[in-house]
Amino acid sequence: MELEYSLATYLVLVLTLLYILYVLISWKKNHIANFPPGPRCWPLIGNLHLIDIKKPHQTYLELAKKYGPVFSIQIGTKKMVVLAGYETVKEALVNNVDDFGDRGVLKIFSSMDQGNGIIFSRGENWKAMRRFTLTTLRDFGMGKSTIEEKIIEECTHLTDYFASFKGKPFDNTIILNGSVANIIVAILLGNRMDYDDPQFKRLLILTNENVRLLGSQMVSLFNIFPFVTFLPGSHKTIIKNVKELCDFIKRTFVKHLKNLDENDQRSLIDAFLVRQKEESGSPQTYFHNENLIQLVRNLFTAGMETTSTTLRWGILMMVKYPKLQEKVQEEISRIVGSAQPMYSHRGQMPFTNAVVHEIQRFSDILPINLGHATAKDVTFKGYFIPKGTYIIPLLTSVLKDATQFEKADEFYPNHFLDAKGNFIKKEAFMPFSAGRRACAGETLARMELFIFFASLLQKFTFRFPSGVTDVDMTPVLSITNAPKPHMICAVPRF
Hints:
By secondary structure, the chain is of the alpha+beta class. It has helices spanning 2-28, 56-67, 86-95, 107-113, 123-139, 145-163, 173-189, 198-213, 217-224, 234-258, 268-278, 289-320, 322-335, 350-363, 395-399, 442-459; strands at 70-75, 78-83, 102-103, 170-171, 372-373, 378-380, 383-385, 390-393, 460-463, 487-492. Strands 1-2-8-5-3 form a 5-stranded mixed beta sheet. Helix 6 (145-163) packs antiparallel against helix 7 (173-189), helix 7 (173-189) packs antiparallel against helix 12 and helix 12 packs across helix 14. Residues 1-5 have low confidence and may be disordered.
């Protein structure tokens, strides 16, 4: 046993030394002519010593002040380019969409998805999955009255749940996750799931835990130095959770396959399985089981996390700013009364619409965005960026760009209102990113946010629990900017 332990220790030491030697050799050869400027890099760690791991976007904002809107950093051995400010991000993602349209992939995401699904896949596989997803979401009602009916039905379940507390404090995290998740679940599986369903609760817990752990220091270390994969830590917990999620999805689509009716497709899984049968003889098909599993998992996570987190921020904002809450409620009462708020009402409710947009802007859910990559060698803003370079379009620098928003660091709904109180669009409003890699479910998310928010504010006034006088708005460490859990009172209005 001691001999085996000594050999294992010796092997780890040799491999580590070889890796360090490789890094040192690569570091000396890593100079790229006319590459965007950035801080001096150190061997092995790059600029890691400068980065606030808990709030890297804050570090990037400070570096942008020194090096400009296009600058480079090196995390470990990986060179990256950061794009800061509305004009720069727009020029890259919208005006040069082909150049910056590839997906930058970190080790943890490649371990989770294996290049399948829609969020972190690339090339022809991504194109096929995105086309299928957009078409199928539209077929199942995205942006139409059919999906609005599902959202309204879910609002009824949600408001009944809130009302059950009779104004007493409760934590709304899981229930908001579940309500929002049920909209995408209805599309993916063909039916909603009950809030008390143990399997549904388990899916929500696994997804929540993964989102939180993706922002952990161990995952950051794993992304920078993949050879630490043998160490215990949150990266292994994430992979274990993904396996459990995938096992559930696999069991689900096997059930759908047994009852598949090509002439009566009731879910995205049904639509995928029909395409799979149609292309079964093609060696180049992308409609295989692994793509289906990861696509469903991607859509479940994306369809739940950002929208439910935005709603949680929205409720906190209303608690913190009761005068704004009263103004939203006054507009709802005046326009719809006790009738069900609909998405079409947003045109008649400019203040409520502005508040929803400002919640998205101010909460800044994905401050760093998901990484992009250059699809070819690019000359951008006078700098040379090689093909495959990891690109960070810094969304926080867009949503809080002082040249675009008058009070960028404050919660100020008037950002989206003109002098007469009419709603105005802002090109710098990019919470869903922009260009080819923009969120595929943006239309659905917009509808969900407005209807859920207006429905909740119609029926409840949100307040602090007794003895609490302020809200801690510091976000928790995660891949997203999520609020800390809070006990909130939902006091029925009538």
